[in-house]
Automatic annotation (TrEMBL):
GO cellular component: actin filament; cytoplasm; plasma membrane
Pfam family, one: FCH
Name of the gene this protein is made from: PSTPIP2
Protein name: Proline-serine-threonine phosphatase-interacting protein 2
Gene Ontology biological process: actin filament polymerization
Keyword vocabulary terms for this entry: Coiled coil
Biased composition range(s): Basic and acidic residues: 135-153
Keyword Transport applies: no
Domain F-BAR: 4-263
Region feature (Disordered): 126-164, 287-320
Family annotation (InterPro entries): AH/BAR_dom_sf, F_BAR_dom, FCH_dom
GO molecular function: actin filament binding
Length: 337
């Protein structure tokens, strides 16, 4: 299929019309605006990355697992270190994005300068073409009018051919001759302007084709540059994800070395206080002075009272019986007043 080109489809039937050219210029202006929008987008994204990186860097400096020990502590240290590396990686990404945005800005300015020179040249040609076209049309009106004047003068001469007024006829001949000269001069000037307009048109046609080819080339370069810029931008983001995952993989490797039982045993060996529990507290009976092996709490009931039987009668004491002493004095008492 044949490719379409600007130079083949942006003409106008009216010589002075610039509709086709204006459509191309509008397209180029829209493209320039798109470049600026993409440039601003990338700069904004770079600022977001930079802000995120700085906050992430600050976060990596905060205390995290300071009191932890052994394998888990090592994993947390790696976790913080890799978080710092991720933040630095995002800072580098932000810088790379700004560099790409700068390249786009330089590309846009370069195209702007190239267009500016060509547009000024085409504007001058358009003004020259319009001016010459107006001059040619004005000369045509003059030429048409002079031709009508000549015809009218000739008709007057023909109508008065049979008149006997010689002086009047000479006047008519003179007027007809002057009208013919005026018509010839208008014809010469008109023909000259048409020739000049033809040359101006030919020059404009040639420059219009060149301009269309250059504008088309610029548009193709712009589209290609924008496509590659966005592609590079996405590659940077994808690479950042890969870099992040590689850094996080270091943390995962460290976590794989984190041994729960080892950390428990490490803590035990480091902070152990003894391997024997305290002895049970035994119950001590206040009255008996003996300690209960079971350590049961003392009873709230008072100790039982052992009641003695009646005293034996001394008079009936036999030789085998225990001798009990008695006090004969009725006024004796163990209580002294």
């Amino acid at each position: 299929m044949k490719n379409l080109h600007f130079k083949d489809f942006f003409w106008n039937s009216d010589l002075t019309c610039t509709g086709g050219y204006d459509a191309i210029i509008q397209y180029l202006n829209d493209g320039k605006r798109t470049c600026k929008e993409v440039e601003d987008f990338m700069k904004a994204r770079a600022s977001i990355e930079e802000k995120y990186a700085k906050e992430l860097l600050g976060l990596s400096k905060k205390v995290c697992g300071h009191n932890e020990m052994n394998t888990l502590k090592r994993s947390l240290d790696v976790f913080k270190l890799q978080t710092e590396h991720v933040s630095l990686s995002h800072l580098q990404l932000a810088q790379s994005m700004r560099e790409e945005a700068k390249k786009l800005e330089e590309f846009r300015e370069k195209q702007k300068e190239a267009r500016k020179k060509l547009e000024q040249q085409m504007d001058a040609l358009h003004k020259q073409r319009s001016s010459q076209f107006k001059k040619t049309m004005d000369s045509k009106k003059t030429y048409d009018q002079k031709c009508r004047d000549k015809e009218e003068a000739d008709q007057n001469v023909n109508r008065n051919t049979n008149t006997n007024n010689t002086k009047h006829m000479e006047k008519l001949y003179t007027k007809a001759q002057q009208a013919k000269q005026n018509a010839d001069e208008a014809d010469r000037l008109y023909h000259q302007n048409v020739t000049t307009l033809g040359k101006v048109r030919d020059e404009w046609l040639k420059e219009h084709v060149k301009a269309c080819e250059m504008f088309e080339k610029q548009s193709m370069e712009r589209i290609n540059f924008l496509r590659n810029t966005v592609w590079t931008h996405l590659n940077q983001l994808s690479q950042q994800c890969v870099n992040n995952d590689e850094l996080y993989e270091e943390v995962r490797k460290s976590l794989e070395q984190c041994d729960v039982q080892e950390d428990i045993e490490h803590f035990i060996n480091l902070r152990r206080t003894g391997d024997k529990p305290p002895a049970p507290v035994l119950y001590e009976n206040f009255y008996s002075g003996q300690k209960s092996p079971t350590g049961t709490p003392p009873s709230r009931l008072p100790p039982s009272i052992i009641r003695r039987g009646p005293l034996p009668d001394p008079a009936q004491n036999s030789t085998d019986d225990t001798v009990y002493s008695t006090v004969q004095d009725a006024g004796y008492s163990v209580i002294h007043y």
